[in-house]
Give the backbone structure.
Amino acid sequence: MSGQPYVPETLTRADVNALAGASVIEFGTNWCGHCNAAQPLIGEVSADYPQVRRLKIEDGSGRPLGRSFRVKLWPTLVFMRDGQEITRLVRPTRASDIEEAFEALTQQG
């Protein structure tokens, strides 16, 4: 796996909704093949957007934060600005899709 690992959830939905500015909440697990395959693409694109907060949250059955976002597949990236979801990507496989989502997020506001 490349990049930072997914960390156990410590934030509530209210905490996430209260985050100011641009954030990407990435749900997945450290052992997920789809998550590991997507890391180089996500890392490459996110490096061009240092102003965007990136949180990698370990998800799983019964984890309230992922359920509050209705996450079903990993990785799921939720792009948010000031507590509002702008867009999301589920199992991204193309850097261009990730780039487009980051652009949409940073063009808001």
Notes: The first helix runs from residue 13 to 17.
